[in-house]
């Protein structure tokens, strides 16, 4: 079977693949909306909403476990959290 891949590389490649897929999906949806309505929608809104949900759910589960978890992404992007 071979040797296992480093976890950091797997996460990095998975993230890049996800962003490529999301970009392609958004481009296709925008193109379809322009064809039918003559206009598009706000790009990336689904991504922001999804990241906010992940942030608040991780805070919720950390509170239930009585743990403190930092979120470096939300610290750099204030629109993801309330702070």
Q: What do you see in this structure?
A:
With 83 residues, this protein is an all-alpha fold. The chain contains 3 helices and no strands.
What is the gist of this entry?
This protein has 83 residues and is an all-alpha fold. The chain contains three helices and no strands. It has helices at 7-37, 45-64, 72-76.
- Which range does the strand content fall in? under 5%
> CA-to-CA gap between the ends?
47 Å
Number of strands: 0
Which value, in Å, is the CA radius of gyration?
17 Å
H-E order? HHH
Approximate shape? flat
Describe the main β-sheet briefly.
none
| Secondary-structure content class | mainly alpha
Considering DSSP H and I runs of 4 or more, what fraction of the residues is helical? 55-70%
Oligomeric state of the chains in view: single chain
Average pLDDT over all residues: 82
Number of helices: 3
Instruction: Report low-confidence residues grouped into runs of 5 or more.
Output: none
């Amino acid at each position: 079977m071979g040797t296992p891949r480093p976890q950091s590389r797997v996460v990095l490649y998975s993230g890049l693949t996800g962003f490529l897929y999301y970009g392609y999906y958004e481009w296709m949806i925008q193109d379809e909306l322009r064809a039918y309505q003559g206009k598009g929608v706000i790009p990336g809104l689904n991504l922001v909403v999804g990241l906010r949900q992940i942030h608040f759910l991780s805070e919720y589960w950390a509170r239930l476990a009585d743990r403190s978890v930092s979120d470096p992404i939300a610290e750099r992007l204030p629109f993801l959290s309330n702070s």
